[in-house]
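Q: Could you predict the 3D structure of Heat shock protein Hsp15?
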Amino acid sequence: MNTAAPKEKLRIDKYLWAIRLFKTRSQAADACDKGKVKLQGSSVKASRTVNLGDEYDVKTEARKWVIKVTGLLDRRVQYSEAILHYTDLTPPEELDKVKSDASSFHTGKRLSKIGRPTKKDRRELDGFMGDDEEEAPVEE
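A: Sure. Here are the predicted structure tokens for Heat shock protein Hsp15:
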């Protein structure tokens, strides 16, 4: 029994979830509703039927995809099998942009010289400004 046998009609939200562009089917449906999934420049609804040869522009949180449907897949399968059901046509410029963002994006670390000072920076500032803990005694 083939567990990945497609049905006659397959919704775009289910397809995008099955090929692992989105973590959940509801995220795929939300992307469709927000206009982040386009077919030939026009937004598609989550219920749109997927056909072989369709080219979709998909914008996820991580990157922008341009995919061509090469096979229908209605169940979520492992990544190595999922990539056989679409062709990635994303322009190289978009991929380069993602690589440059990836080094500092989503790491949780702040970029050097940007944002709040570290404890060490704060101590150096306090020492420079003369705001040491030593205060003059108060005379009565």
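Q: Anything worth pointing out?
A: The two ends are 93 Å apart (CA to CA).
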